[in-house]
Design goal:
This protein has 13 helices and nine strands. By secondary structure, the chain is an alpha/beta fold. The strands form two sheets. Strands 1-9-8-7-6-2-3 form a seven-stranded mixed β-sheet, with helices on both faces. The protein has a two-stranded antiparallel sheet with strand order 4-5. Helix 4 packs parallel to helix 12 and helix 5 packs across helix 11.
């Protein structure tokens, strides 16, 4: 099926955060809203059709996440990330940032150090501080070729006083897709200092050739035992408004602690349409994503060509 990514869709008047709040935030409504990381493409028709079909049923009562839901996640991660998951490793969170907060509360205490790697997604520092943890910065450094890379000597120092490393891979906003060598060095340092890894991998599906996303927890059993991985269909399929994300915890002890935190906060319920949308996206939208990546790659090349001519 050929998908239409050229269609222009007006989002104004839909309570769209990045369009309808421009005047309130910037004092004018004619700015180009590049400050929120969602796309302006339609969500895949397979997703919207699944939601529409479920909405036709007149009862929207309590529901649970079926085997098909969990199997869709397992299949997607194996097809696109080469990581074979077990059902018991998986749990629900209403969002990746929410999941990170639950993990910080489950695995660290007030006053504990949490390493982040700026320039990085701003909620990392904000949510860490709001929950009474200390932010320890390990800034990425810009190499001669323009890439942002990890300062491993500094990371070694920062981890010596930390309980957790909160990492973004692929890195937001620099776009770095960390290599196997880089992830292995990060994992080895976390093993050395007995530091937990909280890995935000929400952008792992949006990667251009020849790069490939690697889940740090899949590289080494020692890393898996100390890693909590967060993924979601929200960025990939433009469905952030459905508040449905996935947390992957291979270690039994860590998983029980996180599940206890989720239960304490009654944050493990979700909603009908988020579950339906995730199942459709992860089981029927591989071709849509392939065409999206091609389209986005064309946009990148368009911008590069424009800049070269200036």
């Amino acid at each position: 099926m050929k998908y239409n990514f050229d269609e222009e869709i007006c989002r104004e008047g839909t309570s769209c955060e990045k369009f309808d709040l421009r005047d309130e935030i910037f004092g004018r409504d004619d700015v180009i809203p590049l400050w929120v990381a969602d796309m302006d493409f339609a969500a895949p028709p397979e997703v919207t059709e699944a939601i529409r079909k479920r909405a036709e049923h007149p009862v929207l009562g309590y529901s649970y996440r079926s085997d098909a839901y969990w199997n869709a996640i397992i299949g997607w991660v194996e097809r696109h990330g080469g990581w074979k998951l077990r059902r018991e490793w998986l749990d629900f969170t209403p969002g990746v940032v929410s999941g990170i907060v639950f993990a910080l509360r489950a695995f660290t205490s007030e006053g504990d150090g949490v390493v982040i790697q700026p320039p990085v997604y701003h909620p990392f520092a904000r949510q860490t501080r709001l929950n009474g943890r200390r932010v320890l910065e390990n800034p990425l450094i810009q190499a001669a070729d323009g890439r942002f890379v990890v300062d491993f000597d500094d990371l070694d120092r920062q981890l010596s006083g930390a309980k957790a490393l909160l990492m973004s891979n692929p890195h937001n906003p620099t776009g770095r897709v960390f290599t196997r060598e880089e992830l292995t060095r990060i994992g080895e340092l976390c093993v050395k200092h007995d530091v937990l890894i909280l890995s935000d991998e929400i952008h792992s599906d949006l990667i251009y050739d020849p790069h490939r996303h690697l889940h740090i927890a899949a590289l080494d059993e020692r890393f898996a035992r100390r890693t909590v991985t967060f993924i979601a269909p929200s960025k990939t399929f433009n469905m952030a408004g459905l508040s449905t994300s996935v947390v992957i915890v291979p270690d039994d002890s860590l998983r029980r602690r996180l599940q206890t935190e989720l239960a304490k906060l009654h944050a493990d319920q979700g909603n009908i349409f988020g579950a339906v949308a995730l199942e459709a996206a992860y089981s029927r939208c591989d071709e849509w994503l392939e065409q999206l990546i091609d389209y986005l790659d064309g946009n990148v090349n368009y911008v590069l060509d424009f800049l070269r001519d200036r």
